[in-house]
Write a structure and sequence with these properties.
326 residues, alpha/beta, UDP-N-acetylmuramoyl-L-alanine:D-glutamate ligase, Protein-Tyrosine Phosphatase, Chain A, 6-stranded mixed β-sheet, 31% helix
Length: 326
């Protein structure tokens, strides 16, 4: 968006605090902000012209305690929106579908879907992202993008729908999609050594995000999981392994809880490896991975305790992998 309008600021939970740029903004500024549930709890006057909720899956229950409360807080992003505003929602998320149907009386809801056409929205169809917004039709083919995976195509649809609603020209949107590369720490290719590919998905800090990580793997995978305990249910993550996980290497405060969840889901006990730290877990993977395997750091947990944040955890992983001798 900043290529289209230089008076644009990208702020929020992504790392740049809004307060650091507030004095540089004026009434014509465009603000692109990622807002966390923690921030929404007290954002009494926040009013977005275009908002979006990508999904509502179990996370931060150590703070919000119940899914009902976590859902309520996430939905506060629309609190002050009206008929002049837009909310972009994932039609394939059951909670959001119910929320959007109730919200339609208050603001303009724009759906996106990876599974079916949606009227007045965007959808994935035969490798193309289609839309009937503003009569665009085919927006772009997914092979034109540099990122892979259905979850990333959903991200493209959500961002593109928001941009259309914000009045950004379609050619600018297409150019941005073609130029965008994967963000650090999100299913990030690190290196191939001795026929083993190493991926850094340190940003997979909850089970739903980690599900996307393992779903993207196309090789037998040595999976590093565990970390800070946010009170998550790990069974959906375990069930998503789909026979891909060669070893589940667990570390951190949650390793026992994840082990119990894995055993209850029928994951073989002799394929669960317990270690104290991420570095020890990675050592096991380096020593036991074979040509054709993948090693994936996708913890399903926050990094706190061992690391200050997921970026530090991911950088430590990448630095260790960079030191592996060919």
């Amino acid at each position: 968006m900043s290529d289209y309008d230089p008076n644009t600021f990208i702020v929020g939970n992504i790392g740049t605090a809004w307060t650091t740029v507030a004095a540089k903004t004026d009434d014509s500024s465009r603000i692109v902000a990622e807002i966390s549930s923690f921030q929404l709890e007290t954002a009494d006057t926040f009013h977005a012209h275009v908002s979006s909720i990508l999904n509502i899956t179990e996370d931060h229950l150590n703070r919000h305690h119940t899914m009902e409360e976590y859902t309520r807080v996430k939905e506060l992003v629309t609190l002050h929106q009206d008929r002049n505003d837009f909310c972009v929602l994932n039609y394939e998320d059951a909670r959001l579908r119910a929320f959007g149907e109730a919200l339609e009386d208050r603001t303009q809801v724009v759906w996106f879907s990876s599974a079916r056409p949606v009227e007045g929205g965007m959808w994935l169809q035969d490798g193309d992202i289609m839309t009937d917004l503003n009569g665009i039709g085919k927006l772009i083919g997914v092979k034109e993008a540099k990122i892979i995976g259905v979850h990333n195509y959903e991200n493209i649809m959500a961002a593109a729908a928001m941009a259309v609603c914000a009045g950004i020209p379609v050619e600018n949107i297409r150019a941005s999609i073609r130029d965008f590369t994967a963000v650090p720490h999100r299913i990030e290719f690190v290196r191939e050594v001795g026929g083993v590919i190493y991926y850094n998905d340190s940003k997979g800090t909850n089970p739903d995000a980690a599900i996307k990580g393992i779903e993207a793997m196309e090789r037998p995978t040595l999976l590093i999981g565990g970390g800070y305990d946010k009170g998550s249910d790990y069974k959906p993550w375990i069930r998503a392994f789909g026979g891909k996980v060669k070893y589940l290497v667990l570390e951190g405060a949650t390793r026992e809880a994840i082990r119990e969840a894995a055993l209850s889901c029928g994951f073989p006990e002799d394929r669960i490896i317990m270690r104290e730290t991420m570095d020890e877990a990675l050592t096991f993977c380096i020593e036991n991975a074979e040509p054709g395997d993948a090693v994936l750091l996708s913890p399903a947990c926050a990094s706190w305790g061992e690391f200050e944040n997921y970026e530090c955890r991911g950088e430590a992983f990448k630095a260790r992998v960079a030191g592996i001798k060919d």
